[in-house]
Design brief:
Layout: H1 4-23, H2 26-43, E1 52-58, E2 62-64, E3 67-77, E4 85-89, E5 96-99, E6 103-106, E7 111-118, E8 122-126, E9 129-134, E10 141-146, E11 150-155, H3 163-166, E12 179-194, H4 206-212, E13 216-225, E14 227-233, H5 247-264, E15 268-274, E16 278-284, H6 287-299, H7 308-315, E17 325-328, H8 337-346, E18 351-356, H9 358-365, H10 370-388, E19 393-397
Parallel strand pairs: 2-11, 14-15, 14-17, 17-18, 18-19
Antiparallel strand pairs: 1-3, 3-7, 4-6, 4-9, 5-7, 8-11, 9-10, 12-13, 15-16
Length: 410
């Protein structure tokens, strides 16, 4: 392709040649022909342009919110020519460049490094790379779209839960490895009972046999960890606000924090995300399971309007009996909340609610007049009071508070 410089030189050459012919000025004619010959020959010598291969390297495939990712370009010239190369890498609109640039004009410099900051969870990709290779005289260039796509995920930010949160109030959902004493094969003595056919002779208490004259066996208990269900509200109403300041973003950060704490304490954790449909990550434990939960949280989008009662009606029959449920929801625009909590309690489940206040974001954006905003606050306080009247724990999470303080006084 012709550059502006090439067009200007060719135009000047034609002008000088025509002017020389009109004025019979051989100096003009000679200069014009030399310039025109130079441009024509250069147009046929694009084979001498650099043949550029580009490769991208990143510091990580997954980072947390507000984390930094280093991106390095390795540019290699496999052709015979020399010249300039323009490179532009397409970035996600949420990315903030903290070092370097995603655009560069270089004379075959071997590498280019860029640092990005991603402030918002989600799944993103870098690329494609737009490249323009110029000849040594900057007269002609070739444009190419390098389909170098690098996908990566930004996980919700995780806070470290402090001691006072763990010991805040019964039931202590985060009080260590949540032991459940269940009768079965174990090492801790529980009681004596009479021998029945099928019992192992190893479990016979011979001292009790000598004392009572009949065979007795030792009954022991085994210690299990508890199955914890994280329930995330991703309905369309959870998108109130903007950027990181929405109930959904706060809920995702809280869910990631609680999941990390619970899994570190060897509990089984499941994640259920409801909005348009119910997405689930089944019960499991370990680092690999934390990765699954963080990936699911990064994928959560505000859409749909599933009601809590409908979700719990479908979900509860398949949950392990007595498993604690932690609900992350702003409790907005859901008239089924009271019935949902009543049905859940009647089945023997307990729900702890972490509720980010969407009204704080509405107040910051000044989209609702003061009087309707006051009415909405009263309605929210009434909803929280009604849930607490069931004997359940509710954390009224303000926008400027840490997740550590949510359940204090809740």
């Amino acid at each position: 392709m012709w550059s502006k410089k090439a067009a200007a030189v060719a135009g000047g050459a034609i002008f000088l040649t025509l002017a020389g012919l009109i004025r019979l000025n051989y100096l003009f004619i000679s200069a014009g022909l030399v310039m025109l010959t130079f441009v024509v020959l250069s147009s046929f010598l694009d084979v001498w342009m650099p043949n550029v291969k580009i490769r991208r390297e990143t510091s990580s495939d997954n980072i947390f919110e507000d984390g930094n990712m280093n991106v390095k370009f390795i540019v290699k010239n496999t052709g015979l020519g020399i010249g300039f190369v323009e490179i532009y890498d397409t970035l996600p609109p949420q990315a903030r460049i903290t070092k370097g640039s995603n655009y560069t004009l270089l004379y075959m410099k071997p590498w280019q490094e860029v640092s990005l900051k991603l402030p918002l969870r989600g799944h993103y990709h870098l690329g494609p790379v737009k490249m323009r290779v110029k000849d040594a005289f900057d007269l002609f260039y070739n444009e190419r779209l390098e389909k170098s796509i690098h996908s990566f995920s930004v996980f919700p930010q995780i806070e470290v839960l402090e001691e006072q949160v763990i010991t805040s109030r019964a039931p202590k959902l985060l009080s260590g490895a949540m032991p459940l004493n269940v009768i079965g094969a174990g090492t801790e003595f529980y009681s004596l009972r009479e021998f029945v056919p099928g019992d192992s002779l190893r479990s016979v208490n011979w001292k009790a046999l000598a004392k009572k004259g009949k065979m007795m066996v030792n009954e022991t208990v085994r210690e299990d960890v508890m199955d914890v269900i994280l329930l995330l509200d991703a309905r369309e109403v959870s998108a109130v606000g903007g950027g990181k300041d929405t109930p959904l973003e706060m809920s995702c950060r809280a869910a990631a924090t609680y999941a990390k704490q619970l899994l570190d304490e060897r509990n089984n954790v499941a994640l259920m995300v409801y909005g348009e449909t119910l997405e689930r990550v089944d019960l499991d434990r370990g680092e690999h399971h934390l990765f699954k939960i963080l990936t699911a949280l990064s994928s959560a989008k505000p859409k749909g309007d599933l009601k809590l009662k409908t979700v719990l009606q479908d979900l509860l029959p398949y949950l392990p009996s007595g498993s604690p449920i932690i609900l992350f929801s702003s409790l907005d625009d859901d008239f089924t909340i009271a019935d949902a909590f009543t049905n859940t309690i009647s089945r023997g489940f307990m729900i702890t609610t972490i509720s980010p206040s969407s009204l704080d974001f509405e107040e910051k954006m000044k989209r609702i007049p003061n009087e309707p905003l006051l009415v909405a606050r009263i309605e929210r306080e009434n909803t929280i009071s009604e849930i607490r009247s069931f004997g359940l724990q509710v954390g009224d999470w303000k926008a400027d508070e840490s997740v550590n303080t949510v359940l204090q006084g809740g």
